[in-house]
Amino acid sequence: MFHMGWFLSTGFGVYDWKGPWSGNIRADIGNPELFLETAAALERAGFDYMMLEDSSVLPDIYQGSYAHSLKNAVVRYDPLPLVSLIARHTEHIGVIATMATSFYPPFLAARLMSSLDHLTHGRVGVNLVTASPHAAAQNYGLDEHIEHDLRYAMADEWMQVVSRLWESWEPDALGTDENRTVYVDHTRVHPIHYEGRFHRSRGPLNTLPGPQRRPVVCQAGGSPAGRELAAEHADTIVSAVVGVEAMRAYREDISARMVAHGRDPHDVKVLFLVDPILAESNAEAQAIAQRRREAAASDVEGALAGMSYVSGLDFSQFDLDAPFPEVLSRTNGHQSTVADYQKAGEDKTLREVALTRSVKDSIPLVGTPASVADQMAEAMEYAGGDGFLIASAVTRRNVSAIADGLAPELRRRDLIRSSYDYGTFRENLLSF
Amino acid sequence: MFHMGWFLSYTVQNWRDPWNGNGSDLWIEPELYIEAAKALERAGFDYMMFEDGSFIPDAFRGSMEYALSNASIAPKHDPLTLIAPIARETERIGLIATVTTSFYPPFLAARLASTLDTLSGGRFGINLVTAHNDRTAQNFGLEQHHEHDLRYEMADEWVRAATALWDGWERDALTLDEANGVFASADKVHYANFEGTYYRTRGPLNLPPSPQLRPVLCQAGGSQAGMTFGARHADTIIAQAGDVPTMKKFRETVRELAQEAGRDPDSVKILFLASFVLEDSDRAAQEKDAQMRAASEANIEANLAMLSFSSGIDFGKFDLDAPVPEIETNAARATTAHHLRNSEGRTLREIVSTRSTGAFNFVGSVPTVADQMSEVAAEVGGDGFLVQAPIIPRTVHRIADGLAPELRRRGLIRADYDYHTLRENLLAF
């Protein structure tokens, strides 16, 4: 058995703005309905969670302007209010929202998450990101972003403070005194007096401990610093590596790092990003995949804008048909992704790299639900991973194809859960 | 006509009240607040305002015991998590939640507020507080809190930074040109490039403009610095004054300050905190009020704890039968001053035996209270009242289904919402 999640790649944003199946997209802007329907469909399908990615930036690296972002609807509402709404619309599925450790005051984050753990009845998670663009740092008052490894050191400390705050109330602090003499036993609530290099907090938190006490922690960094952070703190990891060999190596690396941190490797679930293409016949699915590749090939600009955002380097400045430039030493952005670009560019031009890069597919999944289910089973068998995260655009058509086409096929083979055995997100995540 | 609001917290709603249902844990669920919001919307209220705080009081006797064992001030959950669920099940009532300018990064707050304004269809507001307790500051990493007036100076800059972000997208920036695939127009979106002494932000926000563009701003500080700040920025101000002359003076002062700041004084709606004892007859209400007063006066412990909370000073350590000592506080100055007013020559026991919530207390049958409200509003000159009471269904219904219809019949409160957004409804009269 493996776990399934959905990675909402632009959080509470606008999906597939120019796509043919995006419905009456005007009515979906800033409207929670699409996401509530998605949550209900994924719950029906037995998904463990949906993960709302986030960013505080209107990307403006490409061509030194946000014109491309605005034209293409690269906008994001704050995903946290969506968590409260999804909680009321569902009963079992976990909901993970992203927080940037570099800018979110730890006390604020710990309290907000604890409040949401109550509202979701123990189904909330936090995805830790350090945020990469300088523009994000500038929105929060810095001249430029903190150096890559330093911000991971800060994130590690941030997670320690937040964890201590969540633990500042003993689980049984809330009395069950029928005579109403004592609501909370104050001897079971403690200040934390956390004094770190970057963060300080006295505590205790002023919220009741939530059903999970500690919300599920998710992390997605591919760099060594990111993997360390994940191995130390995470319950689930989003991996963007490509190919079964890399998947297997990634899972092994995480397991080894966890052992070094004194953790049981089974206590983290590594989910790999995929973007399945499903159709009624394999040939039809292949044809759709081919059309998608052609569409992507006609949109060099979109590819370059995406690469510029991730790396923080304006790729419009380079000659498209010259050998791929040296970029790795110039980035403070997503280190592992930029390293992938550099490696892909060893004997290629920029145009070739832009048109072939695939950042959201660990393995290509193309075919009928039955054949895709086989491919997934095989990949998991080999990689030793724990499941997949669907990173497809959030359109009703894609959601239905996965929830009502692929998931039943996986369920019939006992590859995914047929019911939720526990009340909380973490218990379900760790149940196999 | 005057405006009505309800002042509440996301906390245990009077744990020991005999009518609070299963009050130990029901307060956590959104249903309680959604039901209240529906009732208040039916009653024509302008808004619900969630105050907030980020610490467990421990000044009193140097311990968290009083606060935690009595569910007083703590626990308190983040009210921003309740706004979207309430908005989804209501249509017109405004929803205001508290944000601490001293610790909430302006970009984070501006973005969240804009999201909530969109989700509520333009009915969201933020209540700006600077936070008053050193414990809050310590939770956020400081040794002690910034000096009282400095934090208002910071708050002023904070609002200007947030406003620069809200103003970054012009109202018609979204082109939604599906034929040509153009979502928004770059020449209608602008960097904030805000550079202040305490805050900097580059912008723009990464989300489309919300219905109100700028959420409604609410403010509640009664100190000189607080009033100046409110007069400069707030659409609505929450005031505590126990008697008509103080209310009148407060309103006049704020209106003058607003004028000095170049604003139309009518664009600031001042709502006074009010408490209600409503019964079937005047006599029953007076008896009930006397009972409540006696119970409150006998509860010296609670009053000492409240005074310790607002001042940050342990009032448990003073001799109850000696004169009240001189108090210099960096915490909630106006509230502390209110509690200690006329303290000269009186003992601490005398002071804390006089109930004083800071709210104007209306006592009587529904018609009598409607008369009283009408008179007070006429004397003070407007703008309305804010009910300060725990969200207990029985209490909500007395106000929403007993008092409000009477006020409406007399044309004292709105019969209908004429607009969709909070600010428009607030400024409608």
Element pattern of chain B in H and E? EHHEHHEHEHHEEEEEHEHEHHHHEHEHH
Tell me the name of the CATH homologous superfamily of the largest domain in chain B: Luciferase-like domain
The major sheet of chain B is characterized as: 8 strands, parallel, barrel
Structural class designation of chain A? alpha/beta
The helix fraction of chain A, in percent, is 40-55%
How many strands appear in the DSSP assignment of chain B? 13
The most extensive contact between chains is: A-B, 67 and 70 residues
Q: Quickly give the CATH architecture of the largest domain in chain B.
A: Alpha-Beta Barrel
Poorly predicted parts of chain A:
none
CATH C-level class of the largest domain in chain A? Alpha Beta
Q: Mean of residue pLDDT of chain A? A: 94
If you compute it from the alpha carbons, what radius of gyration of chain B comes out, rounded to the nearest whole angstrom?
A: 22 Å
Task: Please provide the ordered H/E string of secondary-structure elements of chain A.
Answer: EEHHEHEHEHEHHEEEHEHEEHHHHEHEHH
Summarize the structure.
The complex is a heterodimer of chains A (432) and B (429). With 432 residues, chain A is an alpha/beta fold.
